[in-house]
Amino acid sequence: MKIVRAVAVLALAFLAASAIMGAVMLLRDPSGHPMDIQQTVLQYTPFHSFFIPGIILLVSQGLLSIAVLAISVFCKHGYGWWIGFQGCMLFGWITIEVILLREVVWLHFLYWGLGLLLIACGWALHRSDRMVKAPGLHAVLHH
Fold it and tell me: How many whole angstroms separate alpha carbon 56 and alpha carbon 9?
């Protein structure tokens, strides 16, 4: 499970860094110009600029990922559940973004994949943690 935890930690670090960098660029210039995003992509959304999406990105994918990363690094109780939760948050974010923008680009597939990876790692770590806490059941199941 050390490898699964390491993969989850690296995925969380990547997500946190990329989300924070993207959010900062959107907040500094909500026109989308620094990221070469045309404001016309917002035409089907309730947003007139990238400012509110930047705040949501910063909180839901950047800051939350840092918190889950810290929980995971220090193996706090339930860290597998938190990793899976962050994966669900990411998968949901990308899905809602695609629905609102009515467009899919290659980065959506990358982050959908990252979300699924986090969900899988979280599930595996949560199951492993449950098995450790119930060694009698673990012994019965594997003999």
Answer: 22
Domain count, the chain: 1
CA distances from residue 81 to 37, 71, 88, 138, 142 in whole angstroms, order as listed:
34, 10, 11, 20, 24
Per-residue pLDDT of the chain (143 residues; tens, 9 = 90+): 899 999 999 999 999 999 999 999 999 999 999 899 999 999 999 999 999 999 999 999 999 999 999 999 998 889 999 999 999 999 999 999 999 999 999 999 999 999 999 999 999 999 887 666 655 544 444 54
Q: Read off the tokens for 78.
A: 């339930």
Domain hosting residue 64, numbered range: 2-141
